[in-house]
Amino acid sequence: MRQILPSLFLEAADSDERFLVLSGDHGYELFDALRSRYPDRLVNVGVSEQSMVGIAAGLCRTGFHPCIYGLAAFVPMRVLEQVKIDLCYGSLPVIVLGDGAGLTYSVLGASHQCGEDVACLRPLPNIAIYSPCDAHEFRACWSEARGGSHPSYLRIGKDHPDDIHSGPVSGTSPIVVSEAAHASSRSVIVATGAMVRVGLRFAHEHGIRCISVPRLKPAPVSLIPLLADAQRVAVLEEHVSAGGLWSLVLEMLQSAGTMQPSNIEPIGLRDSFTQTAGDHQHALSEHGLADGQVANRLTQWLQGSLRTDDRG
Amino acid sequence: MSDAAFDPGILRRHILSMAHRGRLAHVGCALSLVEICAALFGGVMRYDRFDPLAPERDLLVLSKGHGVMALYACFRELGWVGDEDLRNYLVNGTRLRGVSEANVPGCEVSSGSLGHGLPVAVGMAFGLLRLQSQRRVWCIVGDGEMNEGTMWEAMLFAAHHRLANLTVIVDANGFQAMGHTEEVLRLEPLVSKFTAFGFDTVECDGHDMSALAAALDYGEDEQHRPRALIARTVKGCGVSFMAADNRWHYARLNDTTLAAALEEIR
User: At what angle do helices A5-15 and A135-147 cross, to 10 degrees?
Assistant: First the structure.
């Protein structure tokens, strides 16, 4: 997913002379292609994420189309109030890219991990929130964000080399990535971002429906009819369930005037910081979200026997 | 430019009347700004008095948003807001609020949260410079606001990128919400600090119109440094019982205090 960023930057710069990328001294070689063709289109503002958001707002107000890049733990988390006041309040079309969301930066610990960004941004008016699962969804989200007249946040989670989709996707609404093998199947996995991969693998193995949700705000309401016949739903995300996709599904069901299905299982980050060193799977394991743990939890969920104390 | 007079006495009367009508605090920090705003609108800034959104206008960013009544008073002289707006200040459902709001033509940013206006102004100046525009950016900040780290981040950026089209005006009235700036969190020497951060820095009496006009006169700096003016002001200036009395950061005017204040400003 992340590997297409350099080409997205280049395409945007080619087609739009007002396109700029701002970074708070993060990104390493991500901007090399952009810098070699357009040396002045990458502005490294220094280690000053907060003023970077204001500077982007000022650039936007003088006719530029800025994209702010940072690690999700810093952009948008550290700069949440700048996003609220400088971008959302005036509804400025600035793109906010939060890289390494979730527990991607496992070895660096809590300071660099970010499992709360979606929950923090969802209450802010005017901002669109995207959580793509692969390069195809990323391109669709980027394209929609670039065309928007309001701020957008793109959450870039743990990168996996393989795409989920076999080709371009047409939009950012919920996408069925695996259909139920049997018409009688009433269990559905709903997932976003990096967790689509593990959800999809399980869905294939068990012949159940799996839906990817690339856009989290505005609310992906077309998800609700896709759940109409479900008896139980598992919601997978590398983000705290409270305030994330799990909450969003519950809210949308309530707003739609239905509480069916009533069994909505949260499979997301726990209400805790990771405690020990280790790789990404290890960090996830502290939250019961390592690949094998998720498969076990989904197996129990499928059997309808998930015990309450196992829940995230 | 404008044929409006921007008489400081008239501007102060507008501010006092608005604060009274709206039962709004922050009278003192609006009164300290009056001559700065009068100088900017009275000849320093380039703008179209008949169109606050004219494309080639200079941009005035009130980073210390709480002083917004001083801007509204100037807008009243320009006809950008009417007597009705002032009379109904802060009445339910009206458009003028208690801090700078970008949706009011003439206010370029929403800035009540301190430490936001200067970074945005710096982004504007950076954008205008990239466009090779002759437009300038004027940013009024509070001395208390200089406690915010984002101000110093933005100053580093402004100097690094040689934003000679940016002027930061510090309304140095010596007070912040809870006391003297030197007692709360020492700021001085402000001139050397701005200079050390790469600004072409001058200092003047912030209530002396001719000194302000001279200090803000925009000469070319060979080093293309951004400019800073430390305007030494008095919080509550113009009303004897408000001057340098921080109670007027919070106090509301009643009929008696309004009459007494207006009596002093003729």
Answer: 30
- What is the pTM (predicted TM-score) of this model? 0.96
- Structural domain contains residue B165: yes
Q: Which domains does chain A have, with CATH numbers?
A: 2-155 (3.40.50.970), 175-310 (3.40.50.920)
- Confidence class of residue B69 from pLDDT cuts 50, 70 and 90? very high
Domain-embedded: residue B40: yes
* Average pLDDT score, chain B: 95
The alpha carbon of residue A102 is apart from the nearest alpha carbon of chain B, in Å, by: 27
Predicted pLDDT of residue B2: 47
DSSP annotation of B116: S
Is some CB atom of chain B closer than 8 A to the CB atom of A64?
Answer: yes
Beta carbons of B157 and A55 less than 8 Å apart: yes
Which amino acid is located at B211 in the chain? A
Q: Are B110 and A89 in contact (CB under 8 A)?
A: yes
For residue B1, pLDDT beyond 60: no
Task: Please give the residue of chain B at the shortest CA–CA distance from A50.
Answer: B150
Of the candidate ranges A20-29, A76-85, A248-257, B242-251, the one whose mean pLDDT is the lowest: B242-251
Percentage, residues of chain B above pLDDT 70: 98
- C-alpha–C-alpha distance, residues A88 and A215, integer Å: 17
Q: What is the DSSP letter of B43?
A: I
Nearest residue of chain B to residue A41 (CA atoms): B130
Q: Is the pLDDT of residue A290 over 90?
A: yes
CATH code for the domain in which residue B73 is found? 3.40.50.970
Which domain covers residue B41, as residue numbers?
8-264
Backbone angles phi, psi at A143, to 5 degrees: -60, -45
- Mean predicted confidence (pLDDT) in B223-247: 95
B102 touches chain A (CB under 8 A): yes
Q: Which of A143, A150, A97 is nearest to A128 (CA)?
A: A150
Number of domains in chain B: 1
Cβ separation A54–B102 shorter than 8 A: no
Q: Is B43 left (phi over 0), alpha (psi -120 to 50) or beta?
A: left
Closest-approach residue (CA) in chain A for B112: A85
Residue A73's Cβ-count burial label (10 Å; 0-12, 13-18, 19+) is buried
Cβ contact A73:A105 at 8 Å: yes
Compare CB distances from B126 to A53, A55, A89 and report the shortest one's residue.
Answer: A55
CB A57 to CB B123 under 8 A?
A: yes
- Chain B nearest C-alpha distance from A19 (Å): 11
Residues of A in contact with B160 (CB under 8 A): 46
**Using the beta-carbon criterion (under 8 Å), do B127 and A59 form an inter-chain contact?**
yes
A58: nearest CB among B127, B153, B156: B127
CB pairs under 8 A between A and B: 90
